[in-house]
Amino acid sequence: MYLRPPTEPDYAAIASWIPDAKAALRWAGPLLNFPFPALHLSAALAVPGYEVSSYCLVDGNLQPKGFGQHWVSQPGFVHLGRIIVSPGARGRGIGRLLCQELLDTAIRSSQAKAATLRVYRDNTAAVRLYQSLGFQEVKAESTPEVLFMTKKTY
């Protein structure tokens, strides 16, 4: 498996992974209205004011198994966001591979000193994964519902 920029068919697959408005909000935030046409998903996932890089983790048959983005949130910091694994591929270590590859790509392209991300506290599998990758909570930036996490990259 490897990362590559997503194609139109990838966006159609990714759109199918989002079952409802609540899932869309938790995954992409309030700027993504549900339902959304897959054809417009690439544009809908833009982050106003930032240059966003999007990637798919694809298998040997070029089928998307995961998706994630990164952008420089402030000088020296790269933010990982909108990370998702295909429902049929969950529980197989694909999330770990996706996050490792996305983090490596983000650091290489931005040369950031730290990476950040946000995760819902009740998404315990994701919280454990990010902790195992070295991310730690930043209490001052977290809320009762969402953890803000960071990891030094040097």
List keywords for this structure.
globular, alpha+beta, single chain, 154 residues, 5 helices, Aminopeptidase
Layout: helices, strands, pairs:
Elements: E1 2-4, H1 8-16, H2 21-28, H3 41-44, E2 53-58, E3 64-74, E4 77-85, H4 94-110, E5 114-120, H5 124-132, E6 136-137, E7 146-152
Parallel strand pairs: 4-5
Antiparallel strand pairs: 1-2, 2-3, 3-4, 5-7, 6-7
Give a brief outline of the structure.
With 154 residues, this protein is of the alpha+beta class.
Can you walk through the features of this model?
With 154 residues, the protein is α+β, with helices and mostly antiparallel strands. It has one domain (2-117): Gcn5-related N-acetyltransferase (GNAT) (Aminopeptidase), CATH 3.40.630.30. It has helices at 8-16, 21-28, 41-44, 94-110, 124-132, and strands at 2-4, 53-58, 64-74, 77-85, 114-120, 136-137, 146-152. The chain has a 7-stranded mixed β-sheet with strand order 1-2-3-4-5-7-6, with helices on both faces. The longest helix has 17 residues, at 94-110. The model has no long low-confidence stretch (mean pLDDT 94).
